[in-house]
Structure formats: C-alpha cells, structure tokens
Amino acid sequence: MATIVYAMLTSLDGYIAGPSGNIDLPVPEEELHRHFNEEMRRTSIVLCGRRMYETMRFWDSPEREIGAEDVERDFARAWRETPKIVFSTTLEEVGPNARLVRNDVEAVAKSLKGEATGEISVSGAELASHLARAGLIDEYRLYVHPVVLGGGKPYFQSGLSLALKPLGTERLAQGVTLLRYAPVEID
C-alpha cells in the first residue's frame, strides 16, 4: 500500500504562491534542490491538479537538458520518469508519462493507494484539499521558507479543518524548515 504525501514549499505565513498567483518563493539553490531531487526519486506516482501540472511541465522541456545545472537536469530526469495522473476537466491532453483523469478524484486516489507502493505525491493545494477532506492524505510536509508573502494561495485551503500530530522537523539549506505531520483520527 502506498502513502499519499502532500508536500510544498510555503512561506512563513503559509502561502505556496503570492498575491499575484506567481510562486514568489526563493528558487531552491543546489543543496535544497538536491533534497527535492531525492524526494522526486522516492515518488512512485505524482497526482497533479491542472495548474500545478502546467507549472511543472517546465521540467519536460528539452532545454532542461541543455542549459541547466547538473542538479536541475537530475530533477528533470526524475520528473519525466515518474508517472503522473493529472486531474482536470479543461485540459484536452497531457504530456509524456502522464494520464488525464476528468472525474472520480477520490476513487482514483483510493485505487492508486491500494495498488501502488512507496510514496504518491500530491501537487496542488486544491487537489490536496479535496483529498484531505476525503481522508486520503497520510502525511503533510511543509517546507517553510523564512519569507512572508502577505497573501496569495495558502498551503491549506480555507474551510479545511484537520487535527494533526507532529512527525518531525528538519532544518534544510536556505533557512528552510521541513515540518512533517500526519492526520489524527478523531472519534
């Protein structure tokens, strides 16, 4: 059985994107990037919402092999090799190693969790919120960057209520602190 993990870089005030919708967080430098490369290599499947998938398509481009640093090429390879399930009602097609799913987010995630092994990564706050409400996320990883964005797209969507227990913390490069939590079953 696989573990579903929602992991994102976030600002100190809890936003994964700034007020304009752009990812206004500092770009990971080599040491932090290596950490994310390892995370991607451990991932057996990526679940993406449309917006996050379109953002991450950057890593599919051939330019990632030509002008990029070694650490970026390594991430691009890991991204391309990892199967992706993209949940969207508006996309007509998806790129290589990706499958488009238009509905039944919950059923697809439950099925994958039962059939796959390793970690299934959730990319995108809205998709994560949907899966959290269904009780399908096993771990939350907040990579807290020491910046304040003052607004934007939050890591946890408005109206989502969760009881969580700490699993651990880790200090990473660029002042980033990884906070790990698991849901607590409420009787």
Automatic annotation (TrEMBL):
<dbReference type="Pfam" id="PF01872">
    <property type="entry name" value="RibD_C"/>
</dbReference>
<dbReference type="GO" id="GO:0008703">
    <property type="term" value="F:5-amino-6-(5-phosphoribosylamino)uracil reductase activity"/>
</dbReference>
<dbReference type="InterPro" id="IPR050765">
    <property type="entry name" value="Riboflavin_Biosynth_HTPR"/>
</dbReference>
<feature type="domain" description="Bacterial bifunctional deaminase-reductase C-terminal">
    <location>
        <begin position="3"/>
        <end position="177"/>
    </location>
</feature>
<protein>
    <submittedName>
        <fullName>Dihydrofolate reductase</fullName>
    </submittedName>
</protein>
<dbReference type="InterPro" id="IPR002734">
    <property type="entry name" value="RibDG_C"/>
</dbReference>
<dbReference type="GO" id="GO:0009231">
    <property type="term" value="P:riboflavin biosynthetic process"/>
</dbReference>
<dbReference type="InterPro" id="IPR024072">
    <property type="entry name" value="DHFR-like_dom_sf"/>
</dbReference>
